[in-house]
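Q: Here's a chain of 102 amino acids. Please give me its 3D structure as tokens.
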Amino acid sequence: MSADHRWCEQVTVSFRNTGGTAVRSGTVTFGTHIIGALGIDWATIESSEELPSPIAAGAERTKTWTVCVEAMGVPPLERSREWGRVPLGMHIETRDVSVDWA
């Protein structure tokens, strides 16, 4: 991603339907962690997207999303003067993914 999008990252997830019927809808929830220069986990920001459906019984689907965190998610003492700029040493990591199958 460019410097203007340093609060974003590409997240690729594969889904395998091991059930006997197609999955017709659902929600994918990402837990994106804001990590400080010393490795401190300042916050976790959740965002959700629609599941790439339908997923037929026995099939697998892979999808890549661009997951972004607003600069407002940065702790106040670490916030830079320009919105959208990451303070030196801070970064994001999407570590958690959960799925609600419907």
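Q: Can you summarize the key feature?
A: The longest strand covers residues 91-101.
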